[in-house]
Design goal:
Oligomer: single chain
Helix content: over 70%
Low-confidence stretches: none
Shape: globular
Number of strands: 0
């Protein structure tokens, strides 16, 4: 297993610890929420570190290609699900994110079956970064209503845009 893949695997293992810290916080500001925020930031940074190591140290692997995006999705959805449970994130916004993720994954599977690899697009990277940053903002300021709705809007818009872009650029794979 490559160093990049080990870092990605560590990110996956951070998720249950993150969820435990979020549960302990009860959705309120304080020590547990800030500990969860710190772990979320660390986990988010590993996304960039493992990608950098994989590309620059020639450690790109099929396992890494599978696990890295899965780890990102699990981390982000864990955070959104916690906020949803506390009534601070609307279920419809979570469904927009989940629908996009399943649809793009399905598109990639169809394309792979035809021998085509769909690389991560720039809009997908912007979506991931803005979502992770937005969730950090919500953990830092969980009770600021205007900020919460701004984050939700940014996440939904970047999610929809990147999803539409993936299908627009790769619609031939569906034929």
């Amino acid at each position: 297993m490559t160093t990049a893949s080990k870092i990605t695997l560590i990110r996956v293992l951070m998720i249950p610890v993150y969820m435990g810290l979020m549960y302990a916080s009860g959705g309120r500001p304080g020590l547990w929420m800030f500990a969860a925020l710190g772990l979320f930031i660390l986990a988010s940074l590993t996304d960039f570190v493992d990608g950098y190591i994989a590309r620059h140290c020639n450690q790109v692997s099929d396992f890494g290609k599978f696990l890295d995006p899965l780890a990102d999705k699990l981390l982000v959805i864990a955070a959104m699900a916690m906020f949803c449970q506390w009534g601070q994130w609307p279920a419809w916004a979570l469904m927009v994110v989940l629908t996009r993720e399943f649809a793009v994954t399905g598109l990639r599977l169809v394309a792979a079956g035809k021998g085509t690899v769909i690389a991560a697009g720039w809009s997908g990277k912007v979506k991931t970064a803005s979502t992770m940053l937005g969730l950090c903002v919500l953990m830092a300021f969980p009770q600021v209503e205007a900020l919460r709705w701004t984050v939700i809007a940014v996440v939904v818009v970047t999610t929809l845009y990147s999803g539409v872009e993936y299908f627009w650029k790769n619609w031939r794979c569906m034929l």
